[in-house]
TrEMBL record:
GO cellular component: cytoplasm
PANTHER family: VIRAL IAP-ASSOCIATED FACTOR HOMOLOG
Species this protein is from: Cuscuta campestris
Protein name: Phosducin domain-containing protein
Any one Gene Ontology BP term: protein folding
Record's compositionally biased regions (Pro residues): 29-40
Domain Phosducin: 45-185
SUPFAM superfamilies (UniProt xref): Thioredoxin-like
InterPro entries, alphabetized: Phosducin-like_chap/apop_reg (IPR051498), Phosducin_thioredoxin-like_dom (IPR024253), Thioredoxin-like_sf (IPR036249)
Region (Disordered): 22-64
Pfam families in the cross-refs: Phosducin (PF02114)
Record field: compositional bias (Basic and acidic residues): 48-61
Amino acid sequence: MADYHFVYKDLEGSSTQWDDIQRKLGNLPPKPPPFKPPAFMPAEDEESKPKDKDWIDKKTEEELEDLEDDLDEDRFLEEYRKKRLTEMREASKVAKFGSVIPISGSDFVREVSQAPQEIWVVVMLYKDGYPECRMLLQCLEDLAKRYPATKFVKIISTECIPNYPDRNLPTILVYKNSAVKATYVGMQSFGRRCTPEGVALVLCQSDPVLNDGHNGEQSGEVVLDGIRKKFLERVVKESEEDNDGSSSD
C-alpha cells in the first residue's frame, strides 16, 4: 500500500498565509531572512592599480625602459620615468670602489698616479703586525663603504718607498690628478681617539676628498656637514648604548 505521508517543503524563504498569521500572533518564531550570496568582487589586478613615483622608484633601468609604451598616456609618470633613467645612468658613470684595495709597488702608477683626474685616491702605507695600522685600516674600511666614489688603497710601506721608517707608520697620502695633495704621518695626525668620523674630518679639512657618488662633485663644506652629522649620530648612539648598559646593571 502506498505511503501518502510526506512533508511538503516550500522554497527557502517562502511562507504560507497561515504561517504569517501565526507569526503575527506570536505562535511561530520570526521568519529567517532569505539567504543572499555575497556580492561578486573580482580579484584585484596589480597592473590596474594607480601608479605613483614610489612605484617607479622601485623599478630597474631595464624595467623602466619596458614601461615606455604603458606610460604614454600619463604625462607625469612618463616625465618622472625619464628623470629616473637619467639619474640612474649618471650614477652608473661614477666609479664605485667601496673597499680598501690592496696594491703592490708595481701597481702604484696604474692605480694611483694614473687614476682618472676627477678621482680622489687615499693611499695608506702600512705593515702587518702594527696595532696602529690595524686601527686606522678599520676606519678607512668604514669610510670606503660610505664614500664609494673615493678610491682607497693600501700598500706595504717599503714597497711604496724603499727604507721607509717604521716609526712613521701608518702614513696616509692623498692624491688627485697624479699629484700628492696631503700627507699625514703617524696616528697623532688623527687625534687621540681614532674614529672613522675623526679620520674623515682630517682628510677633508682642506679639500672635499670624500665622495659618496650620489650628488656629483660636492664642496668641502657640504662634505664636512655630512661628516659632522655622522659624528653626532655616533656620539648619540654610543651614549644610548652606555645608558642601556648602566640601567641593565
